[in-house]
Design brief:
heterodimer; A: alpha/beta; Rossmann fold; Ubiquitin-like (UB roll); de novo design (two linked rop proteins); 3 domains; 17 helices; B: alpha+beta; Arc Repressor Mutant, subunit A; Glutaredoxin; 7 helices; 4 strands; 4 iron, 4 sulfur cluster binding (chain A); translocase (chain A); NADH dehydrogenase (ubiquinone) activity (chain A); FMN binding (chain A); 4Fe-4S (chain A)
Chain lengths: ~425, ~180
């Protein structure tokens, strides 16, 4: 299916099937056939490596934001040595604008569980953890129930489906910290510590949970694995944009008439997504700007959006990226100064404090933005902000400092007039 | 007061410990067990968790302090966490926060005199398409808030009625 046909797309990740979250309904609709196939069909899947090859060929680009080929990531796992190996499923989902994985927990948890089991088998992993943010209590409960059902049916546990493959699958939760969405920080949290990111290398595939080989994948990424195994890598590659293929869960929020999560092929034109799917800008207002993939992805002005679609190649031409495909839409009345101040407040609040450029930098970004927001800013503060961002980027253990710096740099550059207007003393009344 | 886990808590803690190859990973989940039991994890509760797991008290304290959802002091019966982060800010999160401050007669971060409500401003809760929204005591989400809906919520919580989990269908979805 080409990108142009997106209107005829039938959802596969979250199909229109009632009560699909119930294991019996899932099985009735072909559920766990993919897992059965990789475990028992030796003609098709000669060994675990052949599963990795198929997933690599599908080019599922990680849906957690980084967009790295999932199969390639799996292939970094060292050969099995008889010791424990782990799969950590990242359900932290804390990037502002991102609220898609919860829809998988809610509507089709078994597609994710099946994908994770296939991934674990492919990498010869014996223990799986799914880490869900602490705020998602309802989804933690849903996952506990779904896992219990899958254990009961023999899809998890000892010698699953009569094979010689055994695996355990546990759900565990966070307790409120955005940083725990960062993969190594999630590992620290899973190990029962503060969520401080680890220095890489060594990468988790070499040294992950308790020093053992570990792969970390996003929930949506693993759910796509199930479709790839059932429908083949060629099918997956044929959906959506060439270099960023497959269906994507787009989370649309902000000033639109019909916000929510939509499953569509990658590469849908941004303006179609806003106007055709999300029902256009509310209250008949005009579009001012969008943030395409969560708060850290650079903001784009409405006049830059003609012909731009939701895939990494197209978004790169306007200096931004797909991230988590959490599209935040802003109407003409949006105050970019207020908006940016709130983003800086978020990153300052969520910096773990381990690296100085981030701990101090995010604080200064927020402080200066607050000054500008309150009408006490000066033009030179804008250049000071830009200077601080250059001192933060690439100088820390994880990417939180970059994520804090990009919105500041790009919002100021792209809406400089508004920032300058707020910095001019003449906007105040004469006393 | 002396804090003690019940027999059921201790059974749950054993189940948690069995999920992991060592005891330290039980820190976060056991702090949750404690908070669910006592309503908060003040230093005395942190000590209890440390003793129960045979871990250093400083470790448990460090973890409890790091994560925002652990209450380090007593809170009201219902904690209202109003999200004001990006999408909620764009859609009126601050209006809801301000309205609740007026309605409850407290500022954010405070608890009402009758001990019924604590009000907090929080970072992104991952319900961006259903903004503005809030969370009740680390659990139920209340979405698509208006001032009227916030009023009704406070009134029903006063009566002890907590709203149920609200499933929001995906737009244009018509499940067969």
């Amino acid at each position: 299916m080409s990108t142009a046909d997106w209107k005829n797309y039938e959802p596969v990740l979250i199909p229109n099937i009632k009560d699909l979250h119930k294991i019996d309904v899932y099985i009735k609709n072909g559920g766990y056939e993919g897992l059965k196939s990789v475990l028992t069909d030796k003609q098709k899947w000669e060994n675990p490596k052949s599963v990795i090859e198929e997933v690599k060929a599908a080019n599922i680009r990680g849906r957690g934001g980084a967009g790295f080929n999932a199969g390639l990531k799996w292939s970094f796992m060292p050969p099995a040595d008889g010791g424990p190996r782990y799969l950590a499923c990242n359900g932290d989902e804390s990037e502002p604008g991102t609220f898609k994985d919860r829809k998988i927990f809610e509507y089709n948890p078994h597609a994710f569980i099946e994908g994770a089991l296939i991934a674990a088998y492919a990498m010869e992993i014996t223990t799986i953890y799914v880490y869900i943010r602490g705020e998602y209590k309802a989804y933690i409960r849903m996952m506990e129930k779904a896992l219990e059902d899958a254990y009961e049916k023999g899809f998890i546990g000892k010698n699953i489906l009569g094979s010689n493959y055994s695996v355990d699958f546990y759900v565990t939760g966070g307790a409120g910290a955005y940083i725990c969405g960062e993969e190594t920080s999630m590992l620290e949290s899973l190990e029962g510590k503060r969520g401080y990111p680890r220095v890489k290398p060594p990468f988790p595939a070499q040294k992950g949970l308790w020093g053992r080989p570990t792969t970390i994948n996003n929930i949506e990424t693993l759910a796509h694995v199930t479709s790839v195994i059932n429908r083949g890598a060629d099918w997956f590659k044929s959906v959506g944009a060439e270099n960023h293929p497959g269906p994507i869960l787009y989370g649309i929020s902000g000033h639109v008439n019909r916000p929510g999560v939509y499953e569509l092929p990658s590469g849908v034109p941004v303006l179609d997504l806003i106007h055709d799917m999300a029902g256009g800008i509310r209250n008949g207002k005009k579009l001012k700007a969008v943030i395409p993939g969560g708060s850290s992805t650079p903001v784009v002005r409405a006049d830059q959006l003609d012909g731009i679609s939701m895939d990494s190649d197209s978004l790169r031409t306007v200096g931004t990226m797909l991230g988590t495909a959490g599209l935040v839409v802003m109407d003409e009345d949006t105050d970019m100064v207020d908006m940016l101040w709130r983003i800086t407040h978020f990153y300052h609040h969520e910096s773990c404090g381990q690296c100085t450029p981030c701990r101090e930098g995010t604080g200064w970004l927020e402080k200066i933005m607050l000054k500008i927001k309150n009408g006490d800013g000066e033009i030179k503060d804008l250049d000071l902000l830009l200077d601080i961002t250059t001192q933060m980027e690439g100088r820390t253990i994880c990417a939180l400092a970059d994520a804090a710096a990009w919105p500041v740099r790009h919002t100021i550059t792209r809406f400089r007039d508004e920032f300058e207007a707020r910095c001019k003393k003449s906007v105040h009344a004469v006393a | 007061m002396a804090y003690e886990f019940t027999k059921e808590d201790l059974e749950e803690i054993e189940k948690i410990k069995a999920k992991f190859p060592e005891v330290m990973p039980a820190t976060l989940p056991v702090l949750w067990v404690a908070q669910n039991r006592f309503g908060h994890v003040n230093p005395d509760v942190q000590r209890l968790v440390a003793e129960t797991l045979d871990l250093p008290e400083a470790h448990v304290h460090g973890v409890a302090e790091f994560y925002t959802q652990y209450y380090k002091e007593e809170k009201g019966k219902f904690v209202l966490d109003v999200c004001t982060c990006l999408s909620c800010q764009l859609c009126g999160g601050y209006d809801i926060l301000e309205h609740l401050e007026d309605k409850l007669g407290i500022k954010k971060g405070e608890t009402t005199d009758d001990g019924m409500f604590s009000l907090n401003e929080v970072e992104c809760l991952g319900a961006c398409g259903y903004a503005p929204m809030l969370q009740i005591t680390n659990d139920t989400y209340v979405n698509h808030l208006t001032k009227e809906k916030a009023d009704q919520l406070v009134d029903s919580l006063r009566k002890g009625e907590v709203p149920e989990y609200e499933q929001i269908d995906m737009p244009l979805r018509n499940a067969k």
